[in-house]
Amino acid sequence: MEKGFEEKLQHFQELVHKIKYYNEALSVIFWDLRTGAPKKGVPSRAKVIGMLSTESFKLSTSEEMEDCLHYFEQEENNSKLDHIYKAVVKECRKEYDRSKKIPEAMYKEYVILTSEAESIWEEAKNTDNFLMFSPYLEKIVDFNIKFIDLWGYKDNKYNTLLDYYEPGMTVEKLDRIFEQLRERIVPLVQNIKNSPYQPDDSMFFKNCFDTARQEEFSLMILDKMGYSFDAGRLDVSEHPFTIGMCPGDVRITTHYYQDNFISALFSSIHEGGHALYEQNISTELEDTPVGTASSMGIHESQSRLWENIIGRSRSFWSCYIEDLHKIFPEEFKGVSLEDFYKAINKVAPSLIRTDADEVTYNLHVMIRYEIEKALINKEIKVADLPEIWKEKMKEYLGIEPNNDREGVLQDVHWSGGSFGYFPSYTLGNIYSAQIYNAIRKQFNNLDEMIKNGELTKIKDWLGENIHKHGKLLTPAEILKSVTGEEINSGYLIDYLESKYKEIYKL
């Protein structure tokens, strides 16, 4: 290659790496804020975040970035790039075009606002004080509407936000998906409710579960899944999350409740599924914008696959019920495998999304999806959210929260400005069932593998077919490559009907 091309490529790589390093530093600060940073340090830390984010923003929208993109988008130069940097150019162009439309001062103000808002949300949730958080949320919603007007949109303003988290997804497509789920899931929920065979899950709530032993059990399960503690750690936060700095540093959190055993356990498995994705992205993609998940829906498919389809299966607990009895001998004394299996799969309307069962979970997502669409299209106001939330909970789930802590304040997402993110959970559920069907075709003895604790075989298969590609493939390309077809909600519905008809003897 000629010297001019090599020098240009080296300069572009240095620019890309610098942006990645700023973002990695930001991730460490965000992790610290949500795992125990002193309250009095939050305003100052928010300024640091604002400065670092602005510097990253400046680089991604700089004249030198535009110059590099223009150079490497020319056919004669683009053809000399390897497949990774061709993808990097496309990703940087997408980010450049998106970010260039946002004034620098506006972006900095927004980053500082959301950094402060996450800590305010946590305090507001703990004290059940929506009025404390609502001024921040109003500003965050207004910012997002302004951003959409600057970015532009097609058909529905919410489409622009959807596409950011799930490229190619639209309100029209999502409405159709939710309708397909609603048609078969709602009758299933009703039939389950009417069944005389109702599992007893009181074992999870009637005892006081020592948090140190809960942590011991969570760490053991994560290790069996193949989560590398040399490349990660498990901490505690108000709302469980995963944050990946690089494949060698992917951290997860959970939240322990002494009066609720399954909450932390399945949160740990869920976040572990996310972390396996991040830890197993190809190191060739490290320090580039394509060294991350293909989309939030694909990311969520990994966590839901591990948490629900594997983690709540009879085969899984056939392997680990003895370990459970060893760590909690008194709490689960006399509890059989079958009792435990049915208890962790009990279907009952839940006020808290993260505690919801597989069958009703998507109803929680629908509520948030409908509220977000209405907020972004200025059909409702932030001040009305507590009542709107209660009304929708009553309509979809037949229950109503007693306070805002277990209602509109329960999720962290809006404090960080993550509008358009919630539908990823339902898409992840659909993808997970579709992907698991492909895994079953690959391993005809899959249930026996899981019973024998051979979970790393599944991890390795996912790593080879999904994780390693990072963002080199789109969600649709990954799904087509792995399953041979486009998104198909039928696999999720069939899985739920088959599993719960057996449990509830329908």
Identify the notable features of this structure and list them briefly:
506 residues; 64% helix; mainly alpha; Neurolysin, domain 3; Methane Monooxygenase Hydroxylase, Chain G, domain 1; 2 domains
Helix content: 55-70%
Query: Which strand-content bin applies to the residues?
Result: under 5%
Number of helices: 21
Strand order, largest beta sheet: 1-3-2
Counting structural domains, the number is 2
Element-level helix/strand string: HHHHHHHHHHEEEHHHHHHHHHHH
Give a short account of the largest sheet. 3 strands, mixed
- CATH fold topology of the largest domain: Neurolysin, domain 3
Distance between the termini: 68 Å
Radius of gyration: 23 Å
Helix/strand class: mainly alpha
Number of strand segments: 3
**What is the CATH level 1 assignment of the largest domain?**
Mainly Alpha
CATH architecture level-2 label of the largest domain: Orthogonal Bundle
Rough outline: globular
